[in-house]
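Hypothesis: this fold can be encoded by more than one sequence.
Test: take the structure tokens below, design a sequence, compare later.
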């Protein structure tokens, strides 16, 4: 998902940027909802369908379905988190190279990823030990998705304007 967010921030055709600026809707909702649907239906759903097929052969239908739905639920919630403050015209904005500063932050990203994967793995293992917890987990994930939809509709989309060109940070900062 982090890679998909980064890819959506890169221009496919920078020369077409002006078309998006001329035809922009007053609200960013159609752009961001469309981007999230594309990520879910073209990225996550095919991936988790393949996961289900593999684990169906290994574990059986029920365990594979629970594992797949667990992963898909986590991914759907993470998608909302990763794209919460996304304010760029998807695939059309001009970007500044090196803005992510991966050379400075890679250790933090790697550590955060490892901690997250470990915690999610422990949560899933505990749910498989006590399968009665799966309905509560799925209800909580659905509640988070509904809450994020509410936050997006009433707070994020009305206050967000699309950015077509990033502005470089100043090299020197004045102390005046």
């Amino acid at each position: 998902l982090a890679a998909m967010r980064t890819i959506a921030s890169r221009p496919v055709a920078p020369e077409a940027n002006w078309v998006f600026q001329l035809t922009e809707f007053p609200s960013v909702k159609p752009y961001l909802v469309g981007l999230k649907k594309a990520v879910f239906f073209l990225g996550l759903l095919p991936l988790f369908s393949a996961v289900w097929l593999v684990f169906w052969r290994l574990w059986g239908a029920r365990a594979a379905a629970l594992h797949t739905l667990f992963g898909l639920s986590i991914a759907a919630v993470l998608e909302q988190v990763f794209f919460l403050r996304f304010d760029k015209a998807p695939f059309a904005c001009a970007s500044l190279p090196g803005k992510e500063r991966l050379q400075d932050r890679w250790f933090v990203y790697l550590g955060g990823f490892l901690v997250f994967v470990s915690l999610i793995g422990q949560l899933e293992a505990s749910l498989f030990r006590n399968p009665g917890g799966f309905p509560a987990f799925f209800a909580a994930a659905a509640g988070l998705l509904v809450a994020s939809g509410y936050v997006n509709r009433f707070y994020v989309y009305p206050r967000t304007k699309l950015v077509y060109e990033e502005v470089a940070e100043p090299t020197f900062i004045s102390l005046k």
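The radius of gyration is 19 Å. DSSP finds six helices and no strands in the chain.
Hypothesis status: open.
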